[in-house]
User: What shape does this take?
Amino acid sequence: AGVTKHTSTFRRTTAGSGSTSNPYLSTDSDRTIEPHGSLEESWFGLKVDITPGIRQRAETAVLGEHSCLVLAPEDLLLHLCLHFCFHLIQGSPSLVQLADLLTVCQKQTIHWDLFVQRAVAHEAASFALAGLHLAVNLLNAPVPTAVFVNLNRATPAPMQHYAESLTLRYVLERSQQKPLTTVWQRVQRGFLDRAETARWAANWQGRWRVWRTLLQPNRTDTGQLIVQRIRGSS
Assistant: This one.
């Protein structure tokens, strides 16, 4: 437990001294390993954690000659919906995650009532709605209409409309934003990113947790950069 997600600092036993090639960026890597100690997604104070209970619900699969535990299909699909939406919120590339949603919907037997129940229980219905909406509209993923009806019931109306308005163009624009070259641009982006993040919060308390990160500038790269410049000019 407690392993950092998206680690790029793992080391092969034969690596000797020095760092190992980033497995996500280097063609030199022979395999990609992403350790997870938690399935919590978090960004600017917005947090959704579906980790509780997943190990108890895990199923057994056989890889080669080895048996291992894998996520139950409903947990896997919900995790992928969250992971896709958080990539979208962060402005990170997300088409791979969208393709993952299609694959799971096609290849796995999903108990849709259980999926909806877990999404609602974890206050993740809006993320499930948005992810599946795009998977169906862009990739024709096989998702029953009743799933959207039930997810809509657990999603605030503004978020329903937003989820249904998402398009491929928006996904591409979100993941291909211009690089930031000035401090002012970074400050502006900080406000815009928080506004986008707060939109996804389940209630006003969640939105406040997002916006109050503005009061913690020392915890952001932009805040630290501003402090350094102030100190350097004094």
User: Anything to note?
Assistant: Confidence is low (pLDDT under 50) at residues 1-11. Residues 1-37 form one domain.
